[in-house]
Design a protein that fits this description.
The protein is mainly alpha-helical. It contains nine helices and five strands; from the N terminus they run αααααββααβααββ. The strands form two sheets. It has a three-stranded antiparallel β-sheet. The chain has a two-stranded antiparallel sheet with strand order 1-2.
């Protein structure tokens, strides 16, 4: 073996080994960098998604707040809201303001159609002197249905609880009103039977809350076994 061959045999293997190790290190570095880049991209996408979701929730919350400001809870949540609306429509100034909110002037055809509809409802009186608003139908509506009194103020048109009174005395009165109609004195009922009897009166079908209120107010009590209920003796 000449000197050149001997030198190549001695030097080349370590060089190749070192080059291979360097290549592996470079490859690992590239993979690590690629992983970091992908992670940053995913994090950025998730951040943008969360920001968009938060913005959407804020817009939804804002629209709900706008609706609540436009329609006060004391009016929209009341089963007697129609009375306030009809009473307002009897006011000449209120109707004048409503007239000012028209988006565009009516064509003769649309005006005639609207007048015909109002005449059919009895709200317009047309004679030789012109057109006159007649509030007689509105007054009749307000007079026909008496305003509910007592616990019935908190019931909707179907007899279901519309809302629980905030005052303790009124709430107790409402609960006694419901118990007298839903439950029989002296009857011993299991939870299923109690739920079936209370369901027609429970707001949104939430029988558990109504049953708990009856127990908390001492109107409904458990038997000694704890598995059945009965009306408390007065």
């Amino acid at each position: 073996m000449d000197d050149g061959s001997w030198l190549a045999a001695v030097i080349f293997p370590p060089v190749i080994l070192i080059a291979g190790i360097c290549g592996v290190i470079i490859l690992i570095g590239l993979l690590f960098a690629f992983n970091q880049i992908v992670g940053l991209m995913i994090s950025g996408m998730l951040a943008r998604f969360r920001a968009a979701k938060i913005s959407q929730l804020r817009e939804t919350s804002g629209s709900r707040s706008d609706r609540s400001r436009r329609y006060p809870e004391s009016v929209t949540d009341s089963p007697e809201a129609w009375r306030a609306i009809i009473a307002a429509l009897r006011d000449d100034d209120v109707r004048a303001v409503l007239g000012e909110t028209a988006s565009a002037p009516l064509s003769p055809r649309r005006r005639a159609r609207a007048q015909k509809r109002l005449q059919a409802l009895g709200l317009l009186d047309v004679d030789v002197d012109g057109i006159r608003f007649d509030d007689a139908p509105l007054r009749a509506l307000l007079a026909t249905a008496p305003r509910p009194q007592g616990p019935e103020r908190f019931l909707d048109r179907d007899g279901r609880i519309d809302r629980y009174p905030s005052q303790a005395g009124e709430r107790a009165s409402l609960l006694r009103f419901v118990s007298e109609r839903a439950l029989s004195p002296g009857a011993i009922m299991d939870e299923r039977e109690v739920n079936e009897r209370l369901e027609p009166y429970a707001p949104n079908g939430d029988v558990a809350v109504l049953r708990r209120y009856l127990v908390d107010h001492g109107i409904l009590e458990r038997t000694r076994s704890g598995s059945e209920y009965t009306l408390a003796r007065e």
